Automatic annotation (TrEMBL), chain A:
<feature type="compositionally biased region" description="Basic and acidic residues">
    <location>
        <begin position="15"/>
        <end position="58"/>
    </location>
</feature>
<dbReference type="InterPro" id="IPR032466">
    <property type="entry name" value="Metal_Hydrolase"/>
</dbReference>
<dbReference type="Pfam" id="PF04909">
    <property type="entry name" value="Amidohydro_2"/>
</dbReference>
<feature type="domain" description="Amidohydrolase-related">
    <location>
        <begin position="211"/>
        <end position="512"/>
    </location>
</feature>
<dbReference type="GO" id="GO:0016831">
    <property type="term" value="F:carboxy-lyase activity"/>
</dbReference>
<dbReference type="GO" id="GO:0005737">
    <property type="term" value="C:cytoplasm"/>
</dbReference>
<dbReference type="InterPro" id="IPR032465">
    <property type="entry name" value="ACMSD"/>
</dbReference>
<feature type="compositionally biased region" description="Basic residues">
    <location>
        <begin position="145"/>
        <end position="161"/>
    </location>
</feature>
<feature type="region of interest" description="Disordered">
    <location>
        <begin position="133"/>
        <end position="161"/>
    </location>
</feature>
Automatic annotation (TrEMBL), chain B:
<dbReference type="InterPro" id="IPR032466">
    <property type="entry name" value="Metal_Hydrolase"/>
</dbReference>
<dbReference type="GO" id="GO:0005737">
    <property type="term" value="C:cytoplasm"/>
</dbReference>
<dbReference type="GO" id="GO:0016787">
    <property type="term" value="F:hydrolase activity"/>
</dbReference>
<protein>
    <submittedName>
        <fullName>Amidohydrolase 2</fullName>
    </submittedName>
</protein>
<feature type="domain" description="Amidohydrolase-related">
    <location>
        <begin position="17"/>
        <end position="364"/>
    </location>
</feature>
<dbReference type="GO" id="GO:0016831">
    <property type="term" value="F:carboxy-lyase activity"/>
</dbReference>
<dbReference type="GO" id="GO:0019748">
    <property type="term" value="P:secondary metabolic process"/>
</dbReference>
<dbReference type="InterPro" id="IPR032465">
    <property type="entry name" value="ACMSD"/>
</dbReference>
<keyword id="KW-0456">Lyase</keyword>
Length: 519, 366
């Protein structure tokens, strides 16, 4: 044991600005210092993972670790060899060390956190976007017709748009980055958790809120990569989303079910690995992408630590919180999380999903998956009520939330009831200075897909919910495949409203698009 | 009736059928007296060992309006003369459908024998103290919902009295109401041509939301609407509405305006996932249209009243399915001459909501 302790000391790199920090973290071949505990609350001032993983308890309390060469034969050795992240030539844009560098002053605080992305890549893209749109869009495209049939009244609108093309750039605020398997995360997991994967039944998140066979998990037009499930391949994402005419950027959601990992250290480690994977394999290679970071949402303190670790990375614009949780996100336990997000200009994204182990309704377990799918809209309502009623938006006025892929047509009815009840019960929640609906209007936005209303009903809903203000275009790829995002624009929207939905609101919310708009 | 005659201001021909009026036993002692002898001691010593429910400081005592306490100090809703004075006579209520609240957590009693004894005691008390003395009253059959056998037995016991017009469940249950464990209750109700009503509240042993316990009564109260949505999804997807074509479901105090959005979402999901529920031969919207009724209170109040009128355009079946309710004597009472007053409803629809739909559902004579 003492030998192991001393090896920890040797392997730990020097404190600050050490560019080998991440390398050291991944280089387990000669290290037996297994991360023992990620004690976020005590050590959230740490500047890198290696330091945070320092054992907080005496080493002799720790179970002996199997030698690295005695791993489960199911996993060939080469799979768990550390893979070093691609080093960027731009020192301000290196992967996770960028975060460390940000903390250490590598990114100038007065400079926009998005500037490194925005200055170069975006300016070029804008030109091509305009060019592409001016050439028009094929009005017979199957994907658009599908959306039109879904009730956005798209066909008429599309026809009109075709004759008066508006060079509206498009932000797709909801595309999925699917972790293909735990193997993809191994390079980003610390040695201890790699070893757990190698020697136990632990394979990361055990299930998905989007079961691969469920029709909603993959649109028939979504291509399946050779290497993994739909949504796990950047090349296909480019082909089916990013390279569509007009798309200027897209926001990745990763619904990897961190919350289903009960072990809080395991959840934190896997969340960190997913975020590092997002940076190295999606954000770094593709400047048009932004991402929602994942957090161990069932352990708010560890979630805050993860936000502090990677939340300053310019590619992260949102914190993904699965809609289903063990306790509502408005509760005070979560206020530090909301504050940490808002402090960094990160939006809180309430995304479809959540495998908490608790029933997905307030009355126990439903029988069929379709019930859970439909019911997710009701859980989103519970979470919005919680955020508003608990006063989160009063406590953290800068906080913005987006409901991702859980619909929006339910919003007006929910607010009418909540506002009415508030009039009778407002003395219970004296911190609310305005009607609940006003908080939602100011602080909450919704991605568009999946649309489910017929055209007339949709118009009623949008009129009742300030729809032109509150909607962000989001395809949900690969759950849906949208050939022409403009076809998702409701027929009665003005060009100005269409622009807001397609890009304006998202640009402002996520600080995208132009240096002037960046925060 | 004299009280009505003393109110010349009330238009003679305006009547209402109130589909949600609560009554309660006047005191804990009265509850004890109504229990059969063999349960009284266990009632004293152990109660029913209920599921523990949400208790929020802001909840009003008895959930009641402060002016709803009878002059003798007994519990709100426990005095027939006071009910006549405050509701039935004052507003010329043609019929009131009672929802007995003996104990708010009655449905959540884990001891099935005790729950059944409470239900029997309640139903007998309703007949004796309410239905017999006032012909304007109808009531709901209280059942121990979590023990299907006892629940069916209680339906069979009292369904012969035509003044019981529906079976009475609460929205918070131990399992989603489409679960097959509850189907015998629906079969018994359908066999007796009784609707199954599902009322706000209850306790089923789960947190109030799918995301855990809400912190405040405001969330809990408004959030009942989400539980109604989950339950309706469950009922539709389970196939019980396919199996029992005559089953009628009444959702009480859960709101109305969410129905179109839920039905749209159900239909859209069904389009892609119908193979998971092959026992459904029709779209979810069709089952809702044929089987589900709604009561108004606490009816959603949009800033623009026209928005509420449009809900009836978005889901046209609601024209035949929405029924007025006041929730007397509770704090969020909707007075019949105030509610929907500003909503631009056509006269025919207004008449259906205020009397016609309930008269048809409950087969109430003119």
């Amino acid at each position: 044991m003492s030998a192991r302790r001393s090896s920890v000391g040797r392997a730990r790199p020097s404190r600050r600005g050490d560019s080998t920090a991440r390398r050291a973290r991944h280089d387990s071949s000669e290290r037996s210092d297994i991360p023992l505990r990620i004690d976020a609350t005590l050590r959230n001032d740490a500047t890198d993972m290696t330091e945070r993983n320092e054992p907080a308890e005496p080493m002799d309390r720790i179970e002996p670790v199997e030698p690295i060469d005695r791993i489960d034969p199911l996993l060939p050795m080469d799979r768990i060899e550390p893979v070093l992240p691609i080093e960027s030539s731009d020192p301000s844009r290196s992967p996770i060390p960028g975060v460390c560098r940000a903390a250490a002053g590598w990114i100038q605080p007065e400079k926009s956190r998005h500037a490194a992305y925005v200055d170069g890549a975006f300016a070029d893209r804008h030109g091509s976007v305009r060019h592409g749109l001016a050439s028009g869009v094929d009005a017979t495209d199957a994907g658009r017709t599908r959306r039109g049939r879904r009730g956005c009244g798209a066909r008429d609108r599309t026809a009109r748009r075709k004759v008066t093309p508006v060079p509206t750039p498009i932000v797709d605020a909801n595309v999925h980055a699917v972790v293909p398997s735990v193997t993809a995360l191994l390079p980003y997991l610390p040695a201890f958790w790699r070893e757990q994967v190698a020697t136990t039944a632990f394979r990361g998140a055990p299930e998905s809120a989007w079961p691969p066979g469920m029709p909603m998990s993959r649109h028939p037009d979504a291509r399946v990569p050779a290497s993994g499930p739909p949504g796990s391949d950047l090349a296909l994402l480019r082909e089916q989303v990013l390279d569509l005419p007009g798309i200027e950027s897209a926001v990745l959601q990763c619904a990897y079910a961190i919350e289903s990992i009960r072990n809080p250290d395991g959840a934190a480690a896997v969340a960190a690995a997913v975020n590092d994977w997002l940076v190295a394999e999606w954000l770094e290679p593709e400047p048009r992408l932004r991402a929602s970071m994942v957090v161990p949402s069932h352990t708010p303190g560890a979630a805050v630590a993860e936000i502090e670790r990677v939340g300053d990375h310019p590619g992260f614009v949102q914190v993904f919180l699965p809609i289903r949780s063990a306790m509502p996100y408005g509760r005070r336990e979560y206020h530090p999380l909301h504050a940490a997000a808002a402090e960094r200009g990160l939006v809180v994204g309430l995304g479809y999903g959540g495998l908490t182990g608790n029933a997905p309704t307030g009355v126990g377990w439903p029988t069929y998956l379709v019930e859970e799918f439909v019911g997710m809209a009701a859980v989103a309502q519970s979470q919005l009520m919680s955020l508003v009623v608990e006063g989160v938006f009063d406590a953290v006025p800068a906080l913005r939330a987006v409901v991702v892929e859980a619909g929006f047509t339910w919003l007006p009815a929910m607010l009418w009831r909540l506002d009415k009840n508030w009039k009778g019960l407002r003395r219970e929640v004296p911190w609310l200075r305005r009607a609940p609906s006003e908080y939602v209007r100011e602080h909450v936005r919704f991605t568009t897909g999946p649309a489910d209303a017929p055209a007339a009903g949709l118009r009623h809903v949008l009129d009742d919910m300030w729809g032109a203000e509150l909607l962000l275009y989001g395809s949900g790829y690969p759950h849906d495949v949208v050939a022409d995002p403009r076809a998702a624009v409701p027929a009665h929207f003005t060009d100005e409203e269409a622009t807001a939905m397609l890009s304006g609101t998202a640009r402002e919310l996520y600080g995208l698009g132009s240096p002037a708009g960046a925060r | 009736m004299t009280a009505l005659e003393e109110r010349p201001a009330a238009p003679a021909r305006t009547t209402w059928i109130d589909c949600d009026v609560h009554i309660a036993m006047p005191s804990p002692a009265a509850l004890r007296e109504n229990l059969p002898e063999e349960w009284r001691e266990r009632h004293d010593r152990y109660g029913g060992n209920p599921f523990h429910a949400s208790l929020y400081p802001r909840m009003a005592l008895g959930a009641a309006r402060t002016d709803a306490w009878p002059p003798d100090g007994s519990a709100p809703g426990s005095s027939l003369p006071f009910l006549r004075e405050q509701l039935l006579d004052r507003w010329a209520i043609e019929y009131a459908v009672l929802g007995p609240i003996v104990r708010p957590d009655q449905a959540g009693m884990r001891n099935p024998g005790y729950a059944a004894a409470l239900a029997r005691a309640t139903n007998d008390w309703v007949v004796r103290e309410w239905l017999d003395p006032d012909p304007r009253l109808r009531s709901s059959i209280v059942v121990p919902v979590e023990d299907t056998e006892y629940a069916v037995a209680e339906i069979e016991r009292v369904a012969g009295d035509p003044r019981f017009v529906q079976v009475y469940l609460q929205i918070k249950t131990s399992a989603p109401l489409g679960n097959r464990r509850y189907w015998p209750i629906y079969e018994a109700a359908a066999a007796h041509d009784l609707p199954v009503s599902i009322h706000f509240g209850g306790v089923g042993g789960h947190p109030s939301t799918a995301a855990g316990w809400a912190s405040y009564y405001l969330e809990d109260h408004a959030g009942n609407a989400q539980t109604f949505q989950h339950q309706l999804v469950s009922l539709v997807c389970s196939g019980v509405l396919e199996r029992l074509p005559d089953l009628r479901i009444v959702l009480i105090e859960g709101g109305v305006a969410w129905a179109p959005a839920l039905v749209w979402r159900l239909d859209a999901a069904f389009e892609r996932m119908h193979d998971e529920v092959p026992h459904l031969t029709r779209r979810p919207s069709e089952y809702v249209a044929d089987h589900v009724w709604f009561t108004t209170q606490p009816v959603e109040e949009p800033p623009d009243p026209r928005s509420l009128a449009r809900v009836f355009d978005d889901l046209p079946c609601l024209r035949d399915r929405v029924m007025y309710s006041s929730d007397y004597p509770h704090w969020d009472f909707d007075a019949p001459d105030q509610v929907l007053r500003t909503v631009p409803l056509d006269a025919a629809l207004r008449a259906k909501i205020m009397t016609g739909n309930a008269r048809e559902l409950y087969r109430l004579p003119r």
